[in-house]
Amino acid sequence: MSASSRTGYITQRYDLMVLKKKSHPKFIVPNYGTKRRRRLKDRWRVQRGLDNKKRRKKAFMGAEPTIGYRNPERIRHRLSNGNYGVIVHNREELEGVLKNPNITDFDIIIARGVGSRKRAEISESAVRNGVRIRNG
Q1: β-pairing, 132-133 with 84-88?
Q2: Contact 121, 96 (CB under 8 A)
Q3: From the first residue on, what is the mean pLDDT of each consecutive set of 10 residues in the chain (136 residues)?
């Protein structure tokens, strides 16, 4: 196998692997289980207590977000099919997306607050222009 064909193979292989994002643990705020406190939602906030075990990075408390969990720049903000997702609320926003010359790199996501009439208009014009809709 020649060197040039080998590098082409590696590039193709990387392009196939590039859509797989890294997995990471759930980053949650620990709830200490007292009945006096209300149940904390599963979200992340930096721990600031002086004696906080999570801030002191005790392993049994779980992981904290660090820069090492970040995905490569080529696949950051991409959907599972490799395209970027754009949230659209109305037809004007859709027309702004359609002006982009690289329209094949984008998938439309219709916002959840859009009603059925506007949703039908947006999906009709997107199909007319050949744009893929994720939730249409």
Answers
A1: unpaired
A2: no
A3: 54 58 84 62 82 91 90 86 91 93 91 95 94 89
Q: Where do the domains of the chain lie?
A: 22-70, 84-133
CB 90 within 8 A of CB 98: no
Those residues whose C-beta lies under 8 Å from the C-beta of residue 120, and which sit 6 or more positions away, are none
Residue 116: Cβ within 10 Å count: 7
